[in-house]
Amino acid sequence: MANTSANTLMWFRQDLRLSDNPALSWALEQGSVLPIYVLDESAPDKAQLGGASKWWLHHSLHTLNKSLKGKLLVIKGDASTVIRQFAKQYSVSNVVWNRLYEPWQIARDKELKQQMSEQYCVKSFNGNLLWEPMQVLKKDETPYKVFTPYYRKGCLQRSAPRYPLPSVDETSAFIQADEQVDDGEHITALNLLPEIAWDSDFYNHWTPGELGAKEGLAEFIEQAACSYKDDRNIPSIKGTSHLSPHLHFGEISPHQAWYAIIDNFDNAFDNPDLDCFLSELGWREFSHYLLFHFPTIQEENFNPKFDKFPWRKSAKDLSAWQKGKTGIPIVDAGMRELYQTGYMHNRVRMIVGSFLVKNLLLDWREGERWFWDCLLDADMPANSASWQWVAGSGADAAPYFRVFNPVLQGEKFDKEGEYVKRYCPELSKLPNKYIHKPWDAPDNILKACKIALGKDYPEPIVDLKTSRQRALDAFAQTKDSA
Fold it and tell me: In terms of Cα–Cα distance, which of 159, 141, 121, 143 is closest to 30?
C-alpha cells in the first residue's frame, strides 16, 4: 500500500526531466512529492497529439518513470478533474507545474488555479522558455512582430536567462500512488504506439528521454556547434542539433542548451556559428511569443490580406506531396524522410513548404496538419509560425514572391545528391548532373539507370516555372484586400 498523503502534487507536462525543473525543485523543498502525468483528453481536436508525438511520449514517459523508480502516476482523462481528484485523495498542501503557453492550456491552467487556490498553495513556474512572452514588449507596451528586434533588443538586452538548476537526486521523496501499476503497464495502457509498424526506423535515429537529450546536446557541442551556420543547411550530414523533440517534450530545457554554448565557448556571441545557434533558440522563443500574443495563428492568417488568397483544392496533389511522389527529388526526399524518421531537415522543410503553398497553391494549413501528425518535434507554436513564415502570411514572413526553386536548392545544398539518393533510392544510379532534375536526363541515360519516368519515379506533378508564375498571379489578387 502506498502512502496516503504527500506534501506536494507535481504535475508533469512538457517538462519530462529531473534536471533544471523549477516546479519539481520547489516541490522537493516542501517534502514528499506525488508525481503525476495526465494525457489530457479535454484538449481541443487541433491539439490532440499526432501519431509521431505519441510514439515519442510513450518512450519519454517510460524513461521518466524509470528515473522516478517507477513512481510516476500516468492517467488518461480531463486534466483539471484528475489533478483536483488526486490533490484531495492524497491530502496534499501544494500543487505545482511548469507553465505552458498554448491558448487552451493557459485557459485551463488559469481556471484550475482559481478553483484550487482557496484550499491549496498552487504555484506555476517558468521551466520552458528563456524569456516569458508577457515580459518582452516594445516601449509602447505592444508585442514585437519582427524577430530580429524581438530577439536582439527585446530579449538579449534584458537580463540574461536564469542559470539551469541542478538535477534532482532525492528519489526517496517521491510517493507511489495506490493506483500505480508496476513495470510501466499504465503507460503502455495509454496505447500511444502505432498499430502498424510505420515507426520501425524511428528507433535507429532517436533516443527519447532526458539521457538521450543530454547525450545529443553533448554530441552537438563536440561535433557540430562550431560549423553550425553553414552545415545546418546541408541535409545529408548531421549539421544541426536534433534537439527539437527533446526541447518540445521538455527532456532538456532551453536554459541547458543556452548555457551549454555560453559555458563551453568563450565569447559565443562573437562566433558566427554559435551566435547562429543561439538565435535559433531565439526563434523557438519567438514562436511561443507569437502564439501567446496572437493566439489564433494556428488557424488564421497573421496577415489578413491572405484571407482572400485563392488557394486550390486538390486531394491528388496533396496526397502526392504527403507521400513523396511529386516527381521533384528534393521535395520527395524530404517528405519520405519525414514519414520514415519522424523528422525533416530544416532547410528541406522550407523547400517542401514553399512547394506546397506556392507551386501547388495548396493552403498552408494542409501542411501544418500533416507535419503535426508526422513530426516527432511537432510543436504548436513552431509549426504554426514556421508554416505562416513560408506561406508569406505570418509575422516577419518570407515575402510571398520568394518562391524556392527546389532544383536550385537541391543543387546548392545537396550537390552530390546524397540526401536524395538516401530517400529516393530509385534515382541512386543517376549522374549528379540529373539527380535533382531527372526529367532533363537523356533517354539513354535513364535507360542505363533503369529508370522509367512515370513508372519507377513520378513525372513532375507540376511545371516549376509556370506554377511559380501562377503563385505570383494569385498573390497579386490579395493586394486590394490589405
Answer: 121
283 is catalytic: yes
Read off the DSSP letter of residue 39. E
User: Is the Cβ–Cβ distance between 438 and 457 less than 8 Å?
Assistant: yes
SS3 category, 122: strand
pTM check: above 0.85: yes
Q: Tell me, yes or no, if 370 is annotated catalytic.
A: no
Residue 326 and residue 355: Cα distance in Å, rounded?
Answer: 10
Residue 76 β-bridge partners: 39
Sign of the dihedral defined by the CA atoms of residues 391, 397, 402, 406, in that order:
negative
| Catalytic one of 283, 300, 411, 432 | 283
Active-site residue, selected from the candidate residues 251, 280, 285, 366? 280
Q: Is the dihedral of CA 150, 405, 345, 239 positive or negative?
A: negative
pLDDT tens string 92-110: 999 999 999 999 999 999 9
Q: What is the tens place of the pLDDT at every residue in 182-223?
A: 666 789 999 999 988 888 899 999 999 999 999 999 999 999
* Cell triple for 318: 496533396
Antiparallel, parallel or unpaired: β 33-40 and 73-77: parallel
Q: Which among 27, 19, 42 has a CA at the least distance from the CA of 102? A: 42
Cα dihedral 371, 237, 264, 253, rounded to 10, equals: 20
Contact 102, 15 (CB under 8 A): no
Residue 208: its H or E element: none
Rounded Cα–Cα distance for residues 430 and 432 (Å): 6
Query: Is residue 346 flagged as an active site residue?
Result: yes
